[in-house]
Specification:
CATH topology of the largest domain: Porin
Number of helices: 13
Strand order of the largest sheet: 18-19-20-21-22-23-24-25-26-27-28-30-31-32-33-35
Helix content: 10-25%
Distance between the termini: 51 Å
CATH class of the largest domain: Mainly Beta
Radius of gyration: 37 Å
Length: 755
């Protein structure tokens, strides 16, 4: 159709000289045939105006210009006594686009895809574009596995030269993968190879993951995983011979067949280095992880070339090229590798560019950069810079690129692009027990207020146990060298009775200031000073220990509290850690000048062990100790507590340890907690990093002295989901050695929402 219109326009244009126009002065211009388009729009495209002399050439230009707008399907020029008459026939416009039978997609999503090819309200109607629209709709459905989809299009003329377009869609059933076959596999079981794939046959969670719906992109990724599996286990000559995807006649079932050749298993016979060696050969060989006598592994070859490139990159050789060339002995099934090294030119960083931070200020990102402008390129410093920006917690993605500067051979730019995420959090916590009902808590925080990188939190907790109102503020760069400064102001009322603790009520007003000093890239020391005033109310049925304390020291106490701490965070991720260590140490002491004289110390050691690519072991240990000073006991409301979703699951929060005469927990001066957690992907969602399942074993003790009989143990399952609405953590636990009087709580969860 488009070809015919173009041919018609060309014929009109080339025939114009035969319809010669005697030159004349234009007295007026009149447009005929327009319905929607303004006359001024036509005038704007004409190459002449009133007073100009009209000629054959200008008539040709006028017709060509009006046809070029796409608004008209016919254009003619006539002369009426010195008046130039432009007669046009408009193309119809699209008044509305409607869909019938579309359930798989939202209407707005379909309209957006059609708008990109020219079909939308107000656009000029073009039949060829309508054909493309039908194909685009089908493509959208095919991407969802609906191969039986049919699309019927109806065009209805409306008044004022408009049309209505209606797409009637019969979506059909989703075609699902019924079988995946691997032909030629001998070294590994077919089932184990198929388990490596994202694509799979229907299962109990594939209705949500959609992994049982065929996708060319997913299949390509699965084939690469299959190839890597063989190449990392010695099969250097592995090859995928063919891949066939067939669909049943009713277009409901898909069958995938993969034919492969494994080849022999190779071992490494020798490793050498060659080329321009800027480093000692012994140092380079230490960077090569593949050793003679080992089974060939493409992953280790790649790791070795990466190690050498990164080491050279730390000295400024950003474009170092390292290739491992194999020499095969097909008789002995051995491969010797020579690593050829070309360091290239040494380069420095011209400029650091930041993009994507619409809300966060540039300086917040730039102050985390350890690679400086004008300095020699360093791969380690750039990676550290990326890690520090990522750990700010303000972004869902942090990407770094290092393009070379056009026209130079020794300069690069560092382009850091980020995708921002909501940095405000509404945190809700809840637990449910058969005898305790539901307990709730909450807080509101903004980690990046006004894009400044400063932290502000308002805590409002109105649960039946705690009534807390607090304000916290932290400036992470109080000084230019990264010393942080913050303050806290709070009012807290604790009704311990409802927490299953010995009966008492405290009302505390407090405030303090704190500082953090970075010692290394991973270590920070904190210290602070605070003041608290606490009113204590006890009752006739309160534990005798509580009542004796109030009798001796009074029901009103104040304290000047000095704090100091140390944190070392070496985890590889804040959301989905798989390796690394986190250590925390914290202490506080009641200084002279306040009525409370005591000290407390806490230490936490947490480590992630990557067992495989998907499985991780987490070990966590925590210890706490406190006591009074100057011949006074540790205030009972400063005791340690344990139990709950963040310590020993399966027991109600803060209920482990010594009990009073009423059977309520009163806490203790010693605290030990240990957790062993086996982390693994959620079944059916192996490649979804937002969901994680774990089996755990918890142990914990609260006492006034170390007692093995005081330990409580539990085991169970937990789920962590980084949902679009915020992080959700659920645990179901069974106590292993509970005793009479222990307050058990099998189901516990915390939920946080972002804004």
């Amino acid at each position: 159709m488009a070809f015919l219109r173009g041919l018609f326009a060309a014929l009109v244009f080339f025939c114009l000289p035969a319809l010669a126009i005697e030159p004349f002065v234009i007295k007026d211009i009149r447009v005929e045939g327009i319905q929607r388009i303004e006359a001024g729009t036509v005038f704007s495209y004409l190459p002449v105006k009133v007073g100009d002399t009209m000629t054959d050439d200008k008539a040709s230009q006028a017709i060509r210009a009006l046809f070029g707008t796409g608004f008209f399907k016919d254009v003619s020029i006539e002369i009426d006594g010195g008046v130039l008459v432009v007669a046009v026939q408009e193309r119809p416009s699209i008044a509305q686009v409607e869909f019938i039978g579309t359930k798989e997609f939202e209407k707005d999503q379909l309209l957006k895809s059609l708008r990109q090819i020219g079909i939308s309200d107000g656009r000029i109607f073009d039949r060829s574009q309508l054909d493309r629209a039908e194909q685009e709709l089908k493509r959208q459905y095919l991407s969802r596995g609906r191969y039986a989809v049919t699309v019927t299009t109806t065009v209805t003329p409306l008044e004022r030269n408009r049309v209505s377009i209606n797409f009637a869609v019969d979506e059909g059933d989703v075609a699902r993968i019924q079988q995946i076959s691997i032909i030629g596999a001998k070294a590994f079981r077919e089932k184990n190879l198929i388990d490596l794939f994202i694509l799979r046959t229907p299962g109990w969670l594939t209705w949500w993951s959609k992994h049982d719906q065929y996708s060319r992109q997913k299949l390509s990724a699965d084939l690469e995983v299959l190839r890597s599996h063989y190449l990392d286990r010695g099969y250097l000559e592995f090859n995928i011979d063919s891949t066939q995807v067939t669909i049943s006649p009713d277009k409901k079932d898909i069958f995938i067949s993969i034919s492969l050749t494994e080849g022999p298993k190779y071992t490494v016979s020798d490793v050498k280095v060659a080329g321009e060696l800027l480093l000692p050969e012994a140092e380079i060989l230490k960077l090569i992880t593949v050793k003679p006598g080992e089974v060939f592994s493409r992953a280790r070859i790649s790791e070795s070339t990466k190690n050498i490139s990164e080491r050279l990159g730390n000295d400024g050789y950003a474009f170092a090229n390292v290739n491992a060339a194999p020499e095969l002995d097909k008789v002995k099934n051995q491969a010797a590798f020579t690593f050829f090294i070309d360091p290239g030119r040494r380069v420095y960083v011209r400029r650091i560019n930041v993009a994507g931070n619409a809300r966060t200020r540039d300086e917040v990102i730039r102050r985390e950069m350890r690679q400086l402008e004008g300095g020699w390129y360093s791969g380690d410093r750039i990676n550290l810079s990326r890690s520090r920006v990522d750990k700010l917690g303000y972004f869902t993605e942090v990407n770094v690129e290092t393009p070379s500067v056009t026209g130079t051979t020794d300069q690069i730019d560092v382009n850091i692009s980020v995708i921002e995420k909501p940095t405000g959090n509404i945190l809700l916590g809840a637990g449910f027990g058969s005898g305790e009902g539901v307990t709730l808590s909450g807080s509101v925080a903004q980690q990046n207020i006004f894009g400044s990188g400063k932290f502000v939190a308002v805590q409002v907790n109105t649960s039946r146990i705690n009534t807390t109102y607090g304000l916290s503020y932290t400036d992470p760069y109080f000084t230019v060298d990264g010393i942080s400064q913050g303050f806290d102001v709070y009012s807290r009322e604790v009704d311990a009775t409802r927490a299953g603790i010995g009966r008492y009520v405290t009302k505390t007003l407090g405030g303090g200031v704190r500082f953090g000093v970075p010692v290394t890239e991973r270590d920070t020391i904190t210290y602070g000073l605070a003041y608290e005033s606490t009113d204590i109310t006890t009752f006739a049925d309160s534990p005798l220990f509580f009542r004796d304390y109030v009798t001796t020291f009074g029901n009103q106490n104040d304290a000047i509290i000095a704090t100091a701490g140390w944190v070392r965070d070496g985890r590889d991720s804040l959301i989905y850690p798989t390796k690394g260590t986190l250590q925390r140490a914290f202490g506080e002491i009641g200084l002279p000048g306040g009525s409370l004289k005591y000290y407390k110390a806490n230490y936490q050691y947490q480590r992630y062990f990557p067992l495989t690519r998907d499985y991780t072991l987490l070990l966590n240990g925590e210890a706490g100790y406190g006591d009074g000073s100057e011949n006074t006991p540790l205030p009972f409301f400063k005791n340690f507590f344990a139990g709950g979703v963040n310590s020993v699951r399966g027991y109600r929060n803060a209920t482990l340890g010594p009990k009073d005469s009423n059977g309520d927990s009163r806490g203790g001066s010693h605290r030990l907690v240990g957790n062993a957690e086996f982390l693994f992907p959620f079944p059916g969602l192996k490649n979804d990093k937002s969901v994680r399942l774990s089996g755990f074993f918890d142990a914990g003790m609260i006492a006034d002295k170390y007692e093995t009989d005081a330990f409580r143990y539990s085991t169970g399952l937990a789920v962590f989901w980084s949902s679009p609405f915020g992080p959700l953590k659920i645990s179901v636990a069974a106590p292993l050695n509970s005793e009479v009087g222990d307050k058990k709580q099998a189901f516990q969860f915390t939920f946080g929402g972002a804004f």
